[in-house]
Design a protein that fits this description.
alpha+beta; Immunoglobulin-like; six-stranded mixed beta sheet; 152 residues; three-stranded mixed beta sheet; binds dinuclear copper ion; 2 domains
Length: 152
Amino acid sequence: TYEKLWLAGSFVLIVGFIVTVTYGSVGLGIDMIGEEADGVSPDEISSDERFSEPRVEQVGENEYEVYVVAMTFIFQPDPIEVPANSEVTFYVTSRDVIHGFEVPGTNINSMAIPGQVAELTVEFDEPGTYGVICNEYCGPQHHTMEGSLVVT
Ligand code: CUA
């Protein structure tokens, strides 16, 4: 009986650790990606009305939404083109593994997580050309994973 109690105790401890680790990483993920929109699983991307065609969509006079899909080892759409003096909300997901979506020189920096949709809103005042990079190791061609963002 003591042995059973010991086993049961260990089991509770292990489950406790797993819960803590899982909860911790989920919490961290949400912190890093800011807001989170409704998720989409990689299998559903091709039939999801937001992500089946990654694109820039005008939703108001100076407002745009960009639906970004990251995958090994590209971003879609590429390039992302938005006008200056606009407010742009990015929705970012991944169709395979965890990628990053960072635009150096701006405050755009998010994880692209399969199953989740990160949401970031940014204002672009002036025209410019930026690089888009993946900042999460995602495989052998990780260092080549880049795109561009053009503010016209
Ligand atoms: Cu995608 Cu690193």
